[in-house]
Structures are given as structure tokens and as C-alpha cells.
Amino acid sequence: MDKILSKDEMDALLTNIAGNAGQDGSSGDRNVALYDFHYPNMITHNQKRLIQAIHEVMCRSMGVYFSSQLSFIVEVSLITIDEIRFSEFMSSIAPPGCIYELKIENQNTSIIMDFSPQMCILLVERLFGGNGDFVSNPRNISAIEQQVMKRIVGDLAEVISEAWEPVNDYTFTFNRFESNPEFAQIFPVDEPVVTVAIEVKINSNSMLVNICYPLSWISPNVSSVDAQQRVLAGDSPVNEAESAAIRHQIMQTPITLRAVLGESKISIGEFLELKEDDVIKLETQLEDMISVYINQAKFYSASIGKKRRNYACQIKSIHRQTKDAST
After folding, report:
1. pTM above 0.70?
2. Which CATH number fits domain 45-236: 3.40.50.12640, 3.40.50.300, 3.40.1550.10, 3.20.10.10?
3. What CATH number does the domain located at 253-268+282-326 have?
4. Range 160-178 average pLDDT
5. Alpha-carbon distance 139 to 95, whole Å?
6. Close Cβ partners of 180 (under 8 Å, ≥ 6 residues apart)
7. Measured distance CA(179)–CA(93) in Å, rounded
8. 34 φ, ψ to 5°?
9. Residue 139 in contact with residue 96, Cβ under 8 Å?
10. What pLDDT does 28 receive?
11. Strand order of the sheet with strand 74-85?
């Protein structure tokens, strides 16, 4: 006959089961990632690597741009690349926001750049000559700040165009600004998108810039095998015409050549007492070789002479570093 357990025995049994389950779960460190089978990921690993490579180049260019504009050392780095629904991306933006729509010329589609209001205020304040202090409480940016940010976003649109140039010759241009996410619904809510989170560090203050691409546009571009080879494996070897053009440009580059007659060491007191018609004795003898420099590097040793009415020097030996460099 089956034994009927008491309440205390049932509680002890359930506690034992829960404890064993916890031990089994913690017995090994396992990396578990959530996966929604209703909305499977459409971007493969190689395609994600291509997107990452494009935006790493973009981050470097953004860092150079922000540093030159703000006279600060600005660090820009890629954080994450995610594939989500457009509704999820818009719900992550809390008003007031700084949402910019960039149109892709001849593509009948757009992308979204989302800045934090604190970052926009800091950029505008610094460009107007202020300290560029971080504002903790976000607010709507004014009409003047919107005009300044319009120019900045236009410059960043050129940076994005250059980053995508190895894939295709796309031109991104400023289209419009929105502060309320509800009025920036440029895609259907269930449209799959690829979001790129970029971290911008200015004066130890970390801020985010989010870029949202429609999957219907980005997927065909990163699926190209040629694009993956150009970006991930590097460009194709330079052909003979390009090599000749590069060689011609190098040959036309001007350099500075200096023949140093000699050197001498004097004290500061002697330097302060120098006057017109004073004679400075050099360490070089008349029969000694002189040094010939190209820019700041010593390349040759030469003897002093004269050609027609000008002083001249005749190359007698090549500096050892030149021989090593030529090999």
C-alpha cells in the first residue's frame, strides 16, 4: 500500500529537490544565450563580422572628427551589434531624444542616428567656446542647437558614407530631426533592423550613439562575397597603372637636403657675447668630409668644392642606414 507523506515530509522532499537542482545548475559554467524561434536571426556570423569591420573604421573616423572639432581627445568605440525589431529600438529611446533620419540617396530608404541630449548639448556648448560640461538632466535641445547639430550630423553622414564605400558607393544625407520617438516611426513596428551601439567618451563622460539600419537594406549589402573579401580580406593587389601613378607621386615629393659645413660647441656666456665680425672655429678640418642630411637623417658624406660660381659638395660615401633602408 502506498505511503501517504505528511506535510513536513513533503516540504523536506521539495527542499531537497530544489537544492539538487541548484547544485546541478552551478556545477559547470555554461554560456546560455536567449534565442527567439519566432523571429530567427537573419544575419550570419560572416555578415556580422563585415558590419563590425565597417563600423570600426567608422568609429576611428568619428574619433578624429570629434577630436578636431572639440579640441579634446575623444575616444569612440564600437559596443554591440544587435538584430531586433524596430519597435524594440524605438522603445529604448526615452524622450526627450535627439533622433536624426539620414536618407540614403537612390535607395528609397533611410537610417536613424540617435544621440543622447547630453551629448548634443555638450557638443554645441564646446563649439560655442564653452567648457563642454556634462549635463546630468536631459532636456529638449533648442532651435539654435538643432541648427548646429544639423551641421554636425551632416558631417557624420559623410563619415558613414566613407565607411560604407568599400561595399558600395552610397551617399547618406541629413533628412529631418525628431525629439519624440513616436514621430520617428519610419519603418513598420515589426520590421527587423540591425542596431549598432557606439560609445563616445568625452572628458571621462561616456555617451552613446545608436545607428539603426533596416535589415531589408543592410542584408543584401553584407551578403555580397566581393564586399566581404574587400573589407575582411583586404583590397585586391594594386595593378601596374596604379603602381606607376603612386611611384610618380612619390618621385615628385620635395625633400630638404642640407650640407653641414661643420659644428662647434660654445657656452651660453660665449653665445651671449657674440657680435658682428667674430670668428667661430669649427671642429671640421679643411680636408675632412662633411655630412649631408636629407630632412633630419644623415645620408651621405661629401667633400667641399666649387662648381662655377657656387659652392658645391661631392658625394664620397653613402651612410650605412641608407644601404640598410634600401634593402
Report:
1. no
2. 3.40.1550.10
3. 2.30.330.10
4. 90
5. 9
6. 95, 96, 97
7. 10
8. -75, 140
9. yes
10. 52
11. 74-85, 192-202, 205-214, 109-115, 98-104, 172-178
